[in-house]
Amino acid sequence: MTDVVVTGLGAVCCQGAGVAALDRAMTAAVAAPPDTVPDKGAGLRIPLMHRAPDIAATGHDAGRAGRLAVTAAAEALADAGLTTPHDRVVTVIGTCHGEALPRECRAEGDETPAFLVASAVADWLGGYAANTSVSNACAAGGYALTLAADLIAAGEADVVLAGGADAYSRVGWACMDRMGAVDPLCCRPFDAHRRGTVLGEGAGMLVLESAQYARARGAAVHARFAGAGWSCDAGHATAPDASGEQIERAMRQALTAAPGCVIPHGTGTVLNDRVESRALRAVLGTRADDVPLYSLKALIGHTGGASAALAAVAAVLILAAGAVPANIALEEQDPTCAVFLPQDGPTSLRFPRVLVNAYAFGGNNSSLVLESAA
Fold first, then answer.
1. What distance in Å separates the CA atoms of residue 25 and residue 48, rounded to the nearest whole number?
2. Which region holds residue 308: left if phi is over 0, alpha if psi is between -120 and 50, else beta?
3. pLDDT by residue (tens digit) across 313-344?
4. Which of the 8 DSSP states describes residue 130?
5. Res 233: pLDDT
6. Residues 113-151 pLDDT 10s
7. What CATH number is attached to the domain comprising 252?
8. For the Ketosynthase family 3 (KS3) domain, which residue ranges apply (predicted)?
9. Owning domain of residue 66
10. Catalytic residue ranges
């Protein structure tokens, strides 16, 4: 099978625009307090969100999500040493909401499609290559990255710009609010007092290439794409299957060796965190008490279709540092979530690979592994 490597990174989140902003926030281990949703018409009972910086329109995007995606894509391509526009780069972009807000606020009968994020990136690229939108809710970024790796491994592409992006949606935020799935304080995965998640805006983009193509053009390699697994339990429209069987299946498919760190899906909802914790213990076995988790959503909120892509960017940063940053401090860890969440400082990365999990409504599960290229 063709080796797939990561040569470029791009990110935008509530901590700022750019991978460096995310890296600084991870090192500081200080969460930004949630913002108030600037949309009184939504009628939210808990109007919280993690808002990304405002980004000026580029002329190539359909709205706010497109601007976030293009900004992260531009950084990733520049990091990879690829010029833009670049008409041979395949794009695979995951999203939950797409460009929902403009459609939600337009007059009835407007047929403007909502899922324009991937096409916004391709338009900015000036590309004629394949362009795919992956829209299976909060696992979309993970599926997009795995699909990108599959395209390269199958010889259908040399370079793929892949990731995820999401911005505020009135319907998306209102649905979580009506389900009672929003924490009134902050996103605090695995905390005994957690009461839900807090949604956020963001975009994460990675440039994936065949190792042969990267070598031929002299590209610097950040990491290697080392494994992936998909599964679907289809047990409930919104809740994870309590058995965790299919979550375990995705992780086992992705892992070929022990991970040095896990970036869990870890939304902060009561059932999700418990199910994932049990599944992790089943998969990691005797190593479960020693493999550190890095709870990214406690730092930037739940960025929907961007969450796994931003987690993959964070995984590459962890591999580069050789250490797992301290987690945002918990008030009290839930005893039913028996996972290792170091909070007192960086923890050495014992094995040079990071497992990234992403789960979604409908029981869609994605796990992927990135490992050191050294």
1. 20
2. alpha
3. 999 999 999 999 999 999 999 999 999 999 99
4. -
5. 86
6. 667 899 899 888 887 788 999 999 999 999 999 999 999
7. 3.40.47.10
8. 1-372
9. 4-216
10. 138, 265, 302
